[in-house]
Amino acid sequence: ISICRDLPNIEVITFSVNGISDLEPLHQCQNLSELYLRRNNISSLDELFYLKTLPRLRVLWLAENPCCGPDPHRYRMTVLRTLPSLQRLDNQAVTEEELSQALVDGVEITAPPARRSVENGWSDSSECSAAGSAAELERELLSCSLEDTNKTREELDMKLVPRDKYSSFFPQETDCNRKKRNNVLNAILLLMKELDAEGLEVIQQTVARRLQAFQKKELQEE
Description:
Layout: E1 12-14, E2 34-36, E3 59-61, H1 72-82, E4 88-89, E5 92-93, H2 96-105, H3 134-155, H4 163-166, H5 175-192, H6 197-221
Parallel strand pairs: 1-2, 2-3, 3-4
Antiparallel strand pairs: 4-5
Helix pairs in contact: 1-2, 3-5
Protein name: Cilia- and flagella-associated protein 410
Keywords: Leucine-rich repeat, Repeat
GO cellular component, one term: photoreceptor cell cilium
């Protein structure tokens, strides 16, 4: 997530299922309008302090984080009191009545959370065990990664990836390697949005050379 410090013009970020716990790198993304953070490790709603400075943020998906707590109403009211410009929270439209009620039932967040000593992201040893069984993790990662990838592709006017094609991208890889590779793909698609025509031409030429190399290798193996 630290890469976001160098992407002030980014508009859509999808970081679901990434072990993220600190939102500080997002506070300079002034053009950010949609942020997807479902099922991460965000433990405190105080992290919303870093999103208060984002004037264009309209969509936030924060569900399935520890910060949501046992009281859904208190959680939603606190988020809406802190970010009253939101139009959708956790895939549910925000109403004028909720915004008014949030001033009464929500908790005001006025300071950032205490600094953590542990960096964002899962360690190699915990990456596969954090979401439970291997089968459950695979289903969750495929579902979230496909959703996030297609969201990004839609923003870039690219063709959406069908589920049957997506699940066969890396059939011989482990769950953890598949997750890392999907995250790299999403990062590349997001970064491409920051490039001009000259930069995209460089990408196109590089991809063409890589594909030729892979094709040549496959022919040699055959």
